[in-house]
Structures are given as C-alpha cells and as structure tokens.
Amino acid sequence: MSKTSSTQNNGIGFSGLLIIAFITLKLLGKIDWSWWWVFSPIWITLGAGIFLVIGTLFLAAINVSIKANLDETERLREEIEKHKKALSRKE
Fold first, then answer.
1. 20: which of 41, 44, 53, 84 lies 20 to 30 Å off by Cα?
2. Cα torsion at 11, 15, 17, 20 (round to 10°)?
3. pLDDT (tens digit, 9 = 90+) per residue, 37-74?
4. Which domain holds residue 35?
5. For the chain, what is the domain count?
6. pTM of whole model > 0.85?
7. Is the residue at 6 inside a domain?
8. What pLDDT score was predicted for residue 1?
9. If we measure between CA atoms, which residue out of 56, 21, 51 comes closest to residue 39?
C-alpha cells in the first residue's frame, strides 16, 4: 500500500477577492485610486509574510543564543566542581 500526499487549495482567499473587487471598481471608474492602492492587498499580505519570516528567524536566533549560553554555564559549573574537588583533596 503506498501513501500519497495531496495538497488542498482553499481558493483565492480574502486578499485575492479584495484585489479582484478593487480592479473591477477601478476599471469601472467607481474609485479614483492609484494602481498602488488597488494592489495594496498584495503588498500588505507580502509584508505580513516577510514580517513573520523575519520574526521567526529572530526568535530562532535568540533561542540558539540562549541554548549556547546555558551550555556554557553548565560547562563552567562542572569545571568549578572539578576544581572544588581537587582543592578538597589537597587539604
């Protein structure tokens, strides 16, 4: 038995509907916006996606940094314990 994976497309989405509506209104002369504003749902969606990717990378970098600091702290604690044991043997 083989497993097949399929992706489900949920349709055009909210920003797609807004773009279609804005283009229709612009072409019918109902709105007097620049084309930048007509296509603004694309820019907003793209900007939000970029923001989420950058935010995720930032949080991952913080997580890696914290992990590295915790590892270093644990290594130093073990080294201190070794030195304490060595000093107690000398006494």
1. 53
2. -120
3. 999 999 999 999 999 999 999 999 999 989 888 888 88
4. 13-90
5. 1
6. no
7. no
8. 53
9. 21
Rounded alpha-carbon distances, angstroms, from residue 25 to 32, 35, 75: 9, 11, 65
User: What are the structure tokens assigned to 89, written together?
Assistant: 């043997």
Which residue is it, tokens 């072409």?
27
- Which of 47, 50, 44, 49 lies closest to 19, judged by CA? 44
Count of alpha carbons within 13 Å of 64, Cβ hemisphere only?
6
Looking at the domain assignment, is residue 61 inside a domain? yes
Nearest alpha-carbon partner for 27 in 15, 36, 35, 16: 35
Closest CA to 39 of 14, 51, 22: 22
